[in-house]
Amino acid sequence: MEFTVQQIADLLQGQVQGDGNAKVNRLAKIEEGAPGALSFLSNAKYEHFLYTTGATAVIVSKNLELKQAVNTNLIQVEDPYTAFSALLEVYQNALAAMREGVEEPCFIGDNSTIGEKHYRGAFSYIGKNCKIGSGVHIYPHVYIGDNVTIGNNTVLYAGVKVYPDSVIGSYCTLHAGAVIGSDGFGFAPQKDGSYKAIPQIGNVVLEDNVRIGANTTVDCATMGSTIIREGTKIDNLVQVAHNVEIGRHTVVAAQTAFAGSSKVGNYCTIAGQVGVVGHISIADRTIVGAKSGISKNIKEEGTFVQGAPAFDYKQNLRAMAVFRKLPELQKQIEELREKL
Amino acid sequence: MEFTVQQIADLLQGQVQGDGNAKVNRLAKIEEGAPGALSFLSNAKYEHFLYTTGATAVIVSKNLELKQAVNTNLIQVEDPYTAFSALLEVYQNALAAMREGVEEPCFIGDNSTIGEKHYRGAFSYIGKNCKIGSGVHIYPHVYIGDNVTIGNNTVLYAGVKVYPDSVIGSYCTLHAGAVIGSDGFGFAPQKDGSYKAIPQIGNVVLEDNVRIGANTTVDCATMGSTIIREGTKIDNLVQVAHNVEIGRHTVVAAQTAFAGSSKVGNYCTIAGQVGVVGHISIADRTIVGAKSGISKNIKEEGTFVQGAPAFDYKQNLRAMAVFRKLPELQKQIEELREKL
Amino acid sequence: MEFTVQQIADLLQGQVQGDGNAKVNRLAKIEEGAPGALSFLSNAKYEHFLYTTGATAVIVSKNLELKQAVNTNLIQVEDPYTAFSALLEVYQNALAAMREGVEEPCFIGDNSTIGEKHYRGAFSYIGKNCKIGSGVHIYPHVYIGDNVTIGNNTVLYAGVKVYPDSVIGSYCTLHAGAVIGSDGFGFAPQKDGSYKAIPQIGNVVLEDNVRIGANTTVDCATMGSTIIREGTKIDNLVQVAHNVEIGRHTVVAAQTAFAGSSKVGNYCTIAGQVGVVGHISIADRTIVGAKSGISKNIKEEGTFVQGAPAFDYKQNLRAMAVFRKLPELQKQIEELREKL
């Protein structure tokens, strides 16, 4: 896609300083700009790049006062960051809209329906009795088991695996290799010390606007549903066990794990490599620092914890600071004991 | 599948209280019961749900004395939990038995054989010279490399990848995205600081009744075999490196990693996010707490460890309790020093 | 492939002691040798196996003095370990060279090119406008998005997913289920507490000789590139976030995670289950112990750190040793306080 600088300025309700007929065909950081690229300058710290950039055009604040001449064309707007973000979104939506149609071979089982304007990649698989909305993108090697429901405009990237009976909302994004609905990890110990699998007959429910990262796994419930609520964003390689419930608009970073039947509130922020034990609850707006282990209920909203097991963030910082000096403290205690 | 309440009662050798002709077509928790659902009541704590449930039928103890009238139909049995578990198993076996046949297109290489009553999903791939048993379920997008052996009644869910020369037993379950037999992570440092891959010519052996979780990875041995023995259950996103041996009937929770050549005993319980360093041994019946790091041999059977590095569980609990108070202890030491 | 012992000896410039016409068809550990197997003896510790091995031939040092008679055939060389490694490499290269051709069905989009002597497995997918070199192996269920570039002799094992616009060098190895180019985890908080995805328009660049483990995920950059430089080796289930840069010839063990925009130097060794926070730099030749959390810049080359948060390795060891004794130290402090 190629645009003139003037077209971009019109879209952003900005003013052109320079050649409005110059053409741009991609976006780039200002320090990496090359002919054909459109960049933006928001943070004053990077202003020096404006005078050396190879980009064909740069979106700048209309209040910016140039300190020297520029070789690029300027698009002056109210707020360059917002303008650029808006542009990015237009760009991505345009790219997404271009992806429509069905590549062969692909597989769709009996009695399954799918809405209009969708994309189904080659080697994608849809089982029986599925109800799939419109505008959905199903990339190559996606597997959708029987009886799955998917809302409108949801995107399943290459190789996503959705087990039977899962329910996925609208405007969800599932990244490559994510697994939705694998069996919960439940086994009944037998008298001889072996284990017998407890049948897992529940499912997974992802509400609208949920985002699941690459190679993340979400197990189905033993009975009932494992639920991830509206707007929650989950990073790569996260484990969500059976019967877990994660609230609305919560963010979970990479490699975190939630054990069976744990409940996470709304508007929480869970950093990376965190572990949450089973059958506990975490209040709304909780913040959990990286690598923490949550071993008991967090009842108070807005708590910030750190450590394994986790406790108050600041208290943990102070304890860690002393931890480093433990050999010294030990020596001091010995000296004291000798003196007495 | 639809059954009458009487049919279920007959299967469970129970008595119907109410309408034996009422029809049920799925299983549900008692608190989530709706028309058509069959539930059970085992724990007295949930008895109040019995009087409000929307389920069409509920399996109850024959000794239960009703405190008020019920709107549902009762199936009275000796032990509701056992009865319901038995039913679940019948249900899952029935579902599994229904899955048979071959969906096209799928790929099978020269000289490979597969037993009767199997399922092969569309886009599944079987290489050359494979020997695959009867009753095996191979879901869509499964890849089975050359010279692989698989026993009877093993299930490979969508997108499982099995490298050449792997040996998989009977009644194994491999969940979506699991990788069996990827190269061990072994590199010989060169004089210039670069690395050269050490060829990995071993394989992976999974004995009977092994369960591998979604997106778990099991590397092949450098030479010889990486082995997971009979009945061992492994959760999602676990890493099993080259030449690891895990004993019989051991349970491993999500995101745990075993480094190269580590050996784990029988009947162990390894919690989530544990790390085990290479070339060490863990005795039978060892219990390892979540997030622990095992850095040396555990020689005594039945040991329970916690921490990174791990030591005795109770000792670790006590040390962690003091850890939180370190700033206070430091202050006390300072005070003591001032006094002296 | 079958060879005579003499053929192997000629290849390794060694001398046969025994029957040069005996035939070998596979490699095995000396303690697991069986008829047809070729083994080697390098470490004197294993010499006793030489007198009992069932292997048809064993590569030994020409300086080895036998302590008793052997039932196997010897190939005497300068350095058995080097000779065997060389043989392994010949063996693997021969296996690799055998894999050539195209299995159907497979998919290749408009305007994509691929060099000679390549392998494309059934159900592999290549998008539009891709440039793929010669000698490349693309296993079944590999997905390569639009506009991807791949150098010569790179191997993508089954189910690797490469998002559009990625750039992959020559002689790279990507193990099964690896995901290259999934969206970076970036969201702009909205006034109502919900999140809006920040479009991720960058890509991933893997330079030559990079190795990516099974089910590892490498996110694309928000803008610009996430880069893994020449010769770096990454294990299974590792997370590399958006805009991360990892230097040359660095080794990263399983389940480690690099948060957004972190920079790792050349020749580093990062153990397993490590976490690196965003926007920090790690100097060349840094060594990071298992399970560590790197929370600030490491500026000095060759630093060895451990712990979460990480600090000097030896200092951490000493602190951990005291940590175990904390309950005892607490008691000593109490006693001191009572005395005063």
Automatic annotation (TrEMBL), chains A, B, C:
Reaction(s) this enzyme catalyzes, per UniProt: a UDP-3-O-[(3R)-3-hydroxyacyl]-alpha-D-glucosamine + a (3R)-hydroxyacyl-[ACP] = a UDP-2-N,3-O-bis[(3R)-3-hydroxyacyl]-alpha-D-glucosamine + holo-[ACP] + H(+)
Active site (UniProt): H242 (proton acceptor)
Domain UDP-3-O-[3-hydroxymyristoyl] glucosamine N-acyltransferase non-repeat region: 22-89
Pathway in which the depicted protein is active: Bacterial outer membrane biogenesis; LPS lipid A biosynthesis
EC assignment: 2.3.1.191
One of the record's GO molecular function terms: UDP-3-O-[(3R)-3-hydroxyacyl]-glucosamine N-acyltransferase activity
Top EC class, one word: transferase
Cited SUPFAM superfamilies: Trimeric LpxA-like enzymes (SSF51161)
Keyword entries, A-Z: Acyltransferase, Lipid A biosynthesis, Lipid biosynthesis, Lipid metabolism, Repeat, Transferase
Gene3D superfamilies: Hexapeptide repeat proteins, MurE/MurF, N-terminal domain
Membrane-spanning segments: none
Biological role stated in the UniProt entry: Catalyzes the N-acylation of UDP-3-O-acylglucosamine using 3-hydroxyacyl-ACP as the acyl donor. Is involved in the biosynthesis of lipid A, a phosphorylated glycolipid that anchors the lipopolysaccharide to the outer membrane of the cell.
Assembly mode: Homotrimer.
Family that this chain belongs to: Belongs to the transferase hexapeptide repeat family. LpxD subfamily.
Protein name (database record): UDP-3-O-acylglucosamine N-acyltransferase
Organism: Rufibacter roseus
Lineage: Bacteria, Pseudomonadati, Bacteroidota, Cytophagia, Cytophagales
Encoding gene per record: lpxD
